[in-house]
Design a protein that fits this description.
This protein has helices spanning 2-13, 40-48, 88-100, 128-139, 156-163, 212-220, 261-279, and strands spanning 27-32, 60-66, 74-80, 104-109, 144-154, 180-184, 199-204, 229-234, 250-252, 255-257. The chain has an eight-stranded mixed beta sheet with strand order 1-2-4-3-5-6-7-8, sandwiched between helices. Helices cover 29% and strands 21% of the residues. It has seven helices and ten strands. The chain is globular. Mean pLDDT is 85; it is low at 1-24. The chain is an alpha/beta fold and 281 residues long.
């Protein structure tokens, strides 16, 4: 009984509640990244030269789909992992939390089908197209309200989230659009400019892998016409501060990764409020 109470208290602190009749979680699904569209110039040149262009194809991917009980349609969240891949908090804890809040969740596995074994030190694919491939997949599910889908990324997945929701980025080539975006400790860039959707960025002031100062510089260069970007910086906090598997901090490639329960709890509450604000009818 004491163990059960302790588990429920921890779950409540971390923002996880449990639905009475949740649907099966973590269903393995298969889809493709959004294909890279040919530019009008490339198509025009091909016609001039009598060249026959092949239809662009996406990359085969797999993901993990979780959903609340009931028929929906529900708002949804597409989740992009960091360079460490499908860690426990990405594959299990965040989906359970988001499902308990009423969202369908699709966690995109960008590495397995590409046979990427050492992604933190190697070239990563353009994962913006993975995110939009996941959005295309969700658009075919009757239990998803495709008008209310957020993109949420962690570390390099957070960086891809910002790249996929910037003015004049690849987002403009996509048929379907996200409604909002959440980026945990991303690598910001001032050149990303304005946002195409409301964005919430959460990072730590001691994170030297994804420095908060770079995010401040991006916000300073936004125009008055940009959709809002909210930046939450947590004091005394390092990379991966929301992930309980890093309770004992460790150093990776010269960078500290460490769980911070206080910052984690605050960020989770901010995410819940943000999603309620922008994914509610």
């Amino acid at each position: 009984m004491k163990t059960t109470r302790l588990f429920l208290c921890l779950a409540a602190f971390l923002g996880v509640t449990f639905a009475a009749n949740p649907a099966d979680a973590d269903e393995l699904v298969h889809f493709e990244s959004a294909p890279v569209k040919l530019s009008p110039f490339r198509i025009s040149k091909a016609r001039e030269q009598g060249e026959i262009l092949s239809q662009p194809q996406g990359t085969p991917l797999r993901g993990y789909l979780s959903r609340p009980g009931g028929d929906g349609p529900f708002p949804a969240v597409v989740v992009l992992h960091g360079c460490e891949g499908m860690r426990l908090s990405i594959k299990e804890l965040w989906p359970k939390r988001l499902v308990s809040w009423g969202y369908v969740v699709l966690v995109v596995d960008s590495f397995t089908t590409r046979n990427i074994s050492d992604p933190c030190q190697s070239h990563l694919p353009d994962r913006v197209f993975d995110a939009y491939g996941a959005l295309n997949f969700l658009s075919k599910q009757s239990f998803v309200d495709i008008r209310r889908v957020a993109l949420m990324g962690f570390s390099t997945g957070g960086t891809a989230t910002l790249e996929g929701t910037k003015i004049e980025g690849n987002e403009q080539l996509m048929d379907r659009k996200f409604t909002a975006a959440v980026a945990y400790y991303p690598l910001c860039a001032a050149t990303q400019g304005d946002a195409t959707v409301p964005i919430l960025i959460l990072t730590g002031d001691r994170d030297n892998w994804s420095p908060a100062e770079r995010c401040r510089k991006r916000l300073a260069k936004m125009s008055d016409d940009s959709l809002p970007i909210e930046l939450n910086i947590y004091k005394g906090t390092y990379h991966d501060f929301d992930a309980p598997e890093f309770k004992v901090g460790k150093r990776v490639l010269g960078h500290i990764e460490k769980y911070n329960p206080d910052a984690a709890g605050k960020s989770i509450r901010s995410v819940r409020t943000f999603l309620q604000t922008y994914l509610t009818n």
